[in-house]
Amino acid sequence: MSAIRTVPGRVEAGEPPLVTGNAYVALPEVRAGDGAVLSATVLHRGLAGLLEWRGRGDLPLVAPEVRLDGRTVRVDWRPQPWPEGPLWALRLAGEAEGHRFLWEIVAPEEARGFALALSARAAGGGARAVELALRWSVASPGYAALRRRPSGAALEARFDGWTGSWVVEARGHGPLLALAFRPEPAGARVEPAGEAVGTAGEAAGAAAEAVLRAAFGPLEEARLRAYVGVGREADGAATTAVHLARRGFAALWREAEEAARARADRASGGRWRSETLAFRAVRNLLFNLHFATGRTIDGEEPVWVTSRSPRYYVAGAHWNRDALLWSLPGLVLADPARAREALLAAWAVYGRNAGEHSLYLDGSLLYPGFELDQLAAFPLATRLYAEATGDEAIWREPQVRERIGEVEARLLAARERGRPLYRTFLNPSDDPVEQPYLTYDLALAAAAWRALAGAREAEGDRAGAFLRRQEAEAILEELRRSAVTAGPFGPMWAWAFDGAGAGQAGDEPAGSLMLLPYYGLVAADDPVQQATARWIHSAANPFGPRGRFPWPRSAHADHPWLLAAISDILAGWEAERRLEEVASARLDGGLACETVREEDGSVATGAAFATCAGWLGYALLRALEGEA
Q1: List of residues 6+ apart from 198 with CB closer than 8 A
Q2: Is the pLDDT of residue 628 over 70?
Q3: How many Cβ atoms from other residues are within 10 Å of residue 101's Cβ?
Q4: Backbone angles phi, psi at 217, to 5 degrees
Q5: Could you give phi then psi for residue 559, rounded to 5 degrees?
Q6: Structural contact between residues 479 and 443, judged by C-beta atoms closer than 8 angstroms
Q7: What does the alpha-carbon distance between residue 628 and residue 625 come to, in Å, rounded to a whole number?
Q8: Which run of H or E residues covers position 117?
């Protein structure tokens, strides 16, 4: 029987959106050109998934509009890149009829909302009548735990005079989610726009616009601001909008940008300010921080997901591997405190189903199927964090202590009786295996036992540490006996084997044999490792490199994999060439994606791949520091 795969669809070619966000609200789709904010997402523990505000039909959630002397004029909004523009907030600039306009979007640190500012500056000449407007359209929220679909929630919309906000609340049996926007200055007002409110389901929708009218004299300025609160119900959203307004746009902007720059400086030692590749690295680290981790809107718990953007084909859900092996290294560089919080949440929330294919954001089982590499990720990630930060106390935290025995028991449950071989049901691409044993997975199991031995040593348990280290070495010895096969460049690692002499050549970018030296399991110049690396990058590999971006591919997605390029960089395999290729690839607007098109390196599958962004940023900075 052929393997049953659930594979990604190809992303349509086009200009990727701009992104920004914070721990509570993600803005995954801001469109250059017209400046439209297409959506805003939050994480909801009660529903164990991602909720998304969008506009009704083809309308954006909010878009800027400029009118001069009663006529709507077209402004071609273009993002201002660093250093003229911000690092993580968004500033778009445009001109029309000699006047200059700015459109600014910021999601300040730890705020349950975001802020918008539309400003105009006259160029001279006679007085002009100007109207600055923010047009809102709000549909019933969408839901995603893997794939996006309608929630079917009813909407209630109204102007709340107490807070001066336009409020939309989504309701099921009770409130689910609310959004409120409060315009400033005092002269701005909210006006209905089209149908005021629908009833329920996909047809539900509400629309309004905030309008500021002013007379323009020569060289004068006008600015319309809106403070947007989100909450689990209407009053929380509306009062959050008031709080943001009290703080003021300038303070919110400064807070967000100072935090982003501090993280970029911490991660790169300031190199991002002058080096193009370091800048790409820190942008990816920030995307990982804000789009792979977050807090739930209904409980404020820290959670860890593949992506908070529904553009990713399995958004709003948790993968142990993606979080612990890919996202965590980037978090450690950018924000060690956030990394610690996320790691403890992983043990406490996701550890109860450690090793399963994918989980809801509350840790319950979503997509069953045992994956050995995902189980091994728990001790491996904890060891990486402890070594990077010097925080060995992490092993003594109750979240870790309560689960570490379960992780060890699950490892042993995958072990063959009387032989140090460990089975897995799915491979690192989440597809069924054809042979019972995977060399990469077994290598990670060995690395996991080494990490667990270190944890025992930290507790003073020398006997326990010895047994775990002994098991790690037994696995590696078994791999030398059973997992080496003949290859065109000499003896090489089999990708998979049956333990009785039959081996299968292959590799998977999501868990590549190239990474064995990175995990400290073999030397990079080991002859078997070298022969394997040559095979992976040769025509003998049916999914080997081809085209302008010669990164290996896979049956899961037959395009060049960014994860393969990252593995090469970490392994030091043609690292300088890989760095040049990654620097020239368009990716997903410079951010990580699953695979790329051969012709220009633009996203082919897996747009907005937030956990991979952490791995990419980590690998790039590690290489720039000469550590790959």
Answers
A1: 56, 140, 155, 204, 205, 206
A2: no
A3: 23
A4: -95, 175
A5: -140, 165
A6: yes
A7: 8
A8: strand 113-121
State the SS3 of 498-524: CCCCCEECCCCHHHCHHHCCCCCCCCC
pLDDT over 50 (residue 1): no
Residue 341: both structure tokens together: 């919080």
Supply the DSSP symbol for 627: -
In sequence order, which residues have a C-beta less than 8 Å from that of residue 426 and are 6 or more positions away? Answer: 357, 369, 370, 371, 432, 433
Tokens 């728990």 sit at which residue? Answer: 378
Sign of the CA dihedral running 568, 572, 573, 574: positive
Q: Is the dihedral of CA 506, 512, 514, 520 positive or negative?
A: negative
Token couple for 407: 């992780």
Answer yes or no: is pLDDT of 203 > 80. Answer: no
The helix/strand/coil state of 540 is coil
CB atoms within 10 A of CB 528: 20
Cβ neighbours of residue 491 closer than 8 Å, sequence gap 6 or more: 484, 485, 527, 528, 531
- CA 29/CA 13 separation, integer angstroms: 15
Phi, then psi, of 592 in degrees rounded to 5: -65, 145
Per-residue CA distances from 96 to 79, 215, 221, 304 (Å): 16, 17, 15, 43
Per residue in 274-310, pLDDT (tens digit) is 999 999 999 999 999 999 999 999 999 999 999 999 9
The pTM of the whole model exceeds 0.90: yes
Radius of gyration (Cα) for the chain, nearest Å? 26
Neighbours of 240 (CB within 10 A): 25
The per-residue pLDDT for 200 is 44
CB 137 within 8 A of CB 308: no
Q: Please provide the average confidence, as pLDDT, over all residues in the chain.
A: 93
The mean per-residue pLDDT over the stretch 542-571 comes to 95
Three-class SS of residue 171? Answer: strand
**CA terminus-to-terminus distance, the chain:** 41
Is residue 137 a contact partner of residue 156, using CB atoms and an 8 Å limit?
Answer: no
Tokens 């490892």 found at: 411
Q: Which two tokens stand for residue 484?
A: 């080496």
How much of the chain, in percent, has pLDDT values that exceed 70?
95
366-411 tens-digit pLDDT: 999 999 999 999 999 999 999 999 999 999 999 999 999 999 999 9
Q: What angle, rounded to 10 degrees, do the helices at 372-389 and 336-345 form?
A: 150
CB 594 within 8 A of CB 562: yes
Joined together, the tokens standing for residue 381 give 């990630």
The pLDDT tens digits for 445-460 are 999 999 999 999 988 9
Q: Give the C-alpha separation, 435 to 292, whole Å.
A: 32
Q: To which residue do tokens 């009833």 refer?
A: 199
- Of 204 and 518, the structure prediction assigns the larger pLDDT to 518
pLDDT in tens, 528-537: 999 999 999 9
Distances (CA, A) of 623 to 279, 298, 578, 580: 14, 40, 10, 12
Q: How far apart are CA 445 and CA 459, in angstroms?
A: 21
Structure token digits, residue 4: 């049953």
Gap between the Cα atoms of 250 and 55, Å rounded: 27
Distance CA 555, CA 125 (A): 63
What residue type is 321 in one-letter code? R
Question: For residue 187, what pLDDT is reported?
Answer: 72
pLDDT at residue 206 tops 80: no
pLDDT reading at 91 higher than 90: yes
